[in-house]
Specification:
single chain; mainly beta; globular; 106 residues; 2 helices; 4-stranded mixed beta sheet
């Protein structure tokens, strides 16, 4: 089965929304938790979307109980709730249980 490409966006401020494309499975099931909007290619994206701009949303490290590690963008407004309050722990990414989350430092 071929993977579907999606357009992902995160609103950074009133004037800028950061956008990127990726496989559908990359954020599947975590879109709301990470504060990411998803649309299909060809659909209208929010006004002010910047693809590949210098200002990017924060990234987080996600570890699973099977030992896998993932790096994903997160909406800055969701950092406290999902990372520091650990609300991502116990959720799934790629059918694996999340056991640890931290802010990516570089």
């Amino acid at each position: 089965m071929a993977s579907k490409t999606k357009i992902y966006t995160i609103k950074l401020n009133d004037k800028t929304t950061y956008g990127w494309t990726g496989r559908e499975a990359t954020y599947k099931g975590l879109e709301n938790d990470l504060g990411i909007d998803v649309s299909d290619p060809g659909k209208t994206v929010p006004e002010g979307v910047v693809f590949g701009g210098k200002v990017k949303p924060p990234r987080i490290n996600i570890r699973t109980t099977s030992g896998k590690s993932y790096v994903r963008f997160i909406n800055p407004d969701k950092l406290d709730e999902m990372v520091y309050d650990k609300k991502l722990i116990g959720k799934k990414i790629n059918s694996q249980d999340i056991c640890w989350v931290s802010v990516k430092s570089n």
